[in-house]
Amino acid sequence: MKRQSSGGAAAAASLPGIAVLESFAGATWEARWAAALSYAAAQTYKPTIVLPNGEITLGGGPYRLFDGLRVSGPVGAGEREFTTRGPSCVVTVTGKPLFAMPGGDVSNLWFKGVQFRAKTRLDWMVRTTDFGGGPIMKDADFHSLGWVGFSSVMHARHLRVSIQDMYCNNGSDVQFRLAGSDNFYWTQGRNYLSGSVPPTAAAYVYFTSMSRTRVGALYVTPQGASAFRIDGGYGGLSFEGTLLDSTGRTKDTACQGAALYIHSGEGHTFTNLWFFNNCTNPGATGRAGEKGQVFIGGGADEIVFSGCQWSGGAKQPVATPRGTPAIYAQSGVANVRVTDPLAPNGGEKRLQQAAAGTFSCNDPEWKIVTGG
Question: Mean pLDDT of all residues in the chain?
Fold first, then answer.
């Protein structure tokens, strides 16, 4: 790739609000990246670091996130999985995670128009492990981004964070583990998530104590693990139009257990979701008692499914065993309301509860089975 300039910070500063990576001095992209971060962090009004049109490699991480960090691909870059023409920046990450949280909270982050690829299996950012009291990422936007081949993308506590117009594929472990509130995930644009995550992993997306948050039309192909796991939360976690779809996968490659695994929490709502070809071999997850394309554990309460579809195999191959319930609820679950459910293509109109009185359903064609 042709290098445009070696004028350092002075050249970058000549464009108001812009720090062009190619303008920083350094013999390698790594050196220019480190210089650009240092320059941006020192400014009162943080500039946007603009990455080149082409491919670069970064392996010197993890770099600490800082308040106001802004990173962009070239003008017009929109990272889509199958895009082969037009402006694009591909950042190959090697050796170590690219980013890490600082010692405390971090706010006002903005990333757009970049495709990140892992050279080998590694995390995009260092995983947060303290979801009860660790640092919080606040007021951050991740838009038009790609993540390919990472063990994980983001394990973090969030407040007012948005992830939109994303594709994430070839992941090998829990891609997103998130806690917090007031967030908007995958509610805009086209959003896709796939990979080969072992069925014993928690899920592709794992929400821990997540409340007052909207989840949109993310299209998940859950090969192996559940698409989503939800632990805790005190209300306001709402899904709209999310697709949990293992089309074209076999018994061994489709989602082995529940596509949606609700361990606990209350006030979760699910509207217009799509389920297909999931729960093909729930014994593979190692979680006792797992049944159904949706599983609800004993610590859950006040849950609504409205207008959701559980498709069958009348018109396309399906590996889900006959008799698998759309939703299974363990003993201890209370107040699960199912309204206007659909089972196209010969789907199972079956809700199963370990204890009577768990479900209510407004469609008399759907059978509520007690026991198991």
Answer: 94
